[in-house]
């Protein structure tokens, strides 16, 4: 079996980044961190997650993230499954983060997209069916 362990994101401000991800994942914690150099530039880093998966944040980011409405190569978005999408939306709203856009209307799932403090698009999905054929069905555009 293979599963995703972590995603490593370059950010500009770890504390501001953590305000978003702590709201989304209140059961996660900082697993570790430190300081170092990346090709001659000092940076701090933290691993934020649980015992099985985490997000790594490095604070040596410069400039803007890719234009999400454009066609540049790069990360489009990443997604997490939740069993209570309304609670995620409310926790993020309480920290000042609004839904950027809703996902497509589907009777078997609800999804929303947020933009984190660094310009990464993060999707949250709640499946309303446990049947794979329903969960994974997409209408052709």
TrEMBL record:
Domain VOC span(s) in chain numbering: 3-127
CDD domains: VOC
Pfam families in UniProt: Glyoxalase
InterPro entries in UniProt: Fosfomycin_Res_Enzymes (IPR051332), Glyas_Bleomycin-R_OHBP_Dase (IPR029068), Glyas_Fos-R_dOase_dom (IPR004360), VOC_core (IPR037523)
Protein name: Glyoxalase
């Amino acid at each position: 079996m293979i599963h995703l362990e972590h995603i490593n994101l370059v950010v500009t401000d770890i504390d501001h980044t953590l305000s978003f991800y702590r709201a989304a994942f209140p059961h996660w914690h900082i697993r570790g961190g430190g300081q170092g150099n990346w090709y001659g530039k000092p940076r701090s880093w933290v691993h934020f997650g649980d015992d099985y998966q985490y997000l790594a944040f490095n604070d040596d980011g410069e400039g803007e993230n890719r234009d999400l409405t454009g066609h540049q190569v790069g990360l489009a978005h990443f997604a997490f499954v939740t069993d209570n999408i309304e609670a995620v939306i409310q926790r993020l709203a309480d920290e000042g983060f609004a839904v950027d856009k809703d996902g497509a209307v589907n009777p078997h799932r609800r999804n929303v997209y947020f933009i984190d403090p660094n310009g990464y698009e993060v999707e949250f999905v709640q499946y309303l069916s446990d049947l794979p054929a329903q969960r994974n069905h997409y209408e052709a555009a």
